[in-house]
Prior knowledge:
The chain is 66% helix and 0% strand. The chain is built from 5 helices and no strands. The longest helix is centred in the middle third of the chain and has 24 residues, at 38-61.
Amino acid sequence: MKAKSLLGLREKSSLKEIKNKYKNLMKKWHPDKHKDDVQKATQMSMLINEAYEIILDYCNNYEFSFDEEHIKKSHYSPSEWWNDKFGGR
Length: 89
């Protein structure tokens, strides 16, 4: 199962949303809440933790190109590119 799907993330998700989804799923699948099937809850908790680590690693290590030539090739003005990648403010 893909990490994105397991955490229930949209195509574009903020770091805050990622963390909230993780916390909510961990609360839901904590083994103490599933006395009837501790093994399944433990397995789900492990999968959720792995998915969260994968997503955070991607977020922390994804590289953005700020090279002017790359920006020009994308057919955006530098400000349009910036707004597309990081949102306008």
